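Hi support team,

I submitted a single chain yesterday and got back a structure, but I'm not sure I'm reading the token output correctly. Could someone confirm the output below corresponds to the sequence I sent? I've pasted both exactly as they appear in my results page.

Thanks,
R.
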Amino acid sequence: MTASNAAKPIQIKLLLVRHGATSGNAEKRYIGKTDEPLSEAGRETLRDFVAAGRYSVFSDDVTGTAGKNACLGKSSSCSADCATKRPCVPLVFVSPMKRCVETAQILFPDVKPVVNENFRETDFGLFEGKNYDELMADDRLRSEYQKWIDSGGKDAFPGGESREAFIERTMQGFMSMMDLVLENCAECNCADVSGECHDVVAECENPGFDVKNDEAMPPAVAVIHGGSIMAILSALCGGSFYDYQVENGGGYVCTARIEPADSESVPKEWESARKGCASMNIQLFGLRRL
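Hi R., thanks for writing in. Yes, this is the structure output for that exact sequence:
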């Protein structure tokens, strides 16, 4: 991509939310591929969070009906209001698991979410559905579990997924999410962006540019799993995987700046996700917990 035809940088508000509580969460079980719905207590807690304004981190009421006249991921005939009213209704992405879809329905009832298969929780393998006490009481699994604990959680789950594979899969989901955000904005005339497929190079230091116009873009929301949030932020911002743990219904908000990047600046570890797409730099700043 040359300087003459490069897309202009854009910046958006980004909200990462962990799903509400399930019965397995309440019992401190490893719930990954098990497709549990929210518990009634989990639903009620989310409703309380909404009523308290926990997710009202944008300038308009994006959790309600304020964005009904704005377009959301439409391929054509976007409303003219979308180019003039700021911000647009958020583009909401979810893991396909019931607990995430139900959470999005409670938080953003007027928005049809985009399902992203790569946002599934990690596969806990032999530990799936069990909690600490059960694993330590299981003669067959105790030694495997202790070995995993002693590794600091870095070893692959026996019969399940490794952390490296989980982070790579999750980041592929994040990159495809950002693709759709850019396409949505281009179709709505919200910004001068290209409709190409993009990859991610991430840097998290404050780049020192003016951020006062980030409300000019429709915000992006991902209602996903705790592990998925940990994967995204540890990959993009560094630090320990466990630095970014959040409770059910918790999460992070930040501003993301997206701009074209030369292919040489894309780290080799992203090679498997590139597939010939143009590259993009994504910088996250102003990261804070909800």
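A quick pointer for reading it: Residues 1-6, 59-88, 191-216, 265-278 have pLDDT under 50 and may be disordered. Let us know if anything else looks off.

Best,
Support desk
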